[in-house]
Write a structure and sequence with these properties.
By secondary structure, the protein is α/β, with parallel strands linked by helices. It has one domain: Transcription Regulator spoIIAA (2-Layer Sandwich). 32% of the residues lie in helices and 28% in strands. The chain contains four helices and eight strands. The strands form two sheets. A six-stranded mixed sheet has the order 1-2-3-5-7-8, sandwiched between helices. Strands 4-6 form a two-stranded parallel ribbon. The longest helix is centred in the middle third of the chain and has 14 residues. This is SpoIIAA-like. It comes from Winogradskyella jejuensis.
């Protein structure tokens, strides 16, 4: 389910952004990214996305990164290790809707240097992100 179509989206303040390869939703403590169908999400696209986030959040703002895999697309699993180089990502969640994305999420979880949660709904991922001790104020 797209974040905007979920009931939880009605109870969260966020800013929506659209790039040629994805939509993203920037909330106070987390970012949700929905990559478009058929895209190959590579380092160049990640850098473009990070530039957007740098414009939105102060440099010390700790965040959770949620990828809502509503579409089929490919990505390099090593990209998770670049996330916290430019923005302080303290954890990430992968929302999976298909067995194929669950398998990829398992591989990515083992490769990543940051904590990665596999979730089956956007609500589960957001709940997990909001409970991260690093994001408690």
């Amino acid at each position: 389910m797209r974040f905007e179509d979920s009931p939880i989206s009605k109870s969260i303040n966020y800013r929506k952004g659209t790039l040629s390869f994805c939509d993203y939703y920037a909330a106070d403590k987390f970012i949700i990214v929905e990559v478009n169908q058929g895209v190959h999400f590579d380092e160049e696209k990640l850098e473009t996305l990070i530039e957007e986030f740098i414009d939105i959040y102060p440099p010390t703002q700790q965040l959770a990164y949620i990828t809502n895999r509503i579409n089929n697309y490919s990505s390099d699993p090593i990209l998770w290790n670049y996330l916290d180089n430019d923005i302080p990502v303290v954890g990430a969640a992968i929302v999976t809707y298909r067995d194929s994305t669950l398998l990829s999420a398992n591989i990515e979880k083992h490769i990543s240097k940051i904590s990665v949660k596999r979730a089956y709904t956007i609500e589960e991922a957001i709940g997990w992100a909001l409970r991260l001790k690093e994001l408690q104020c």
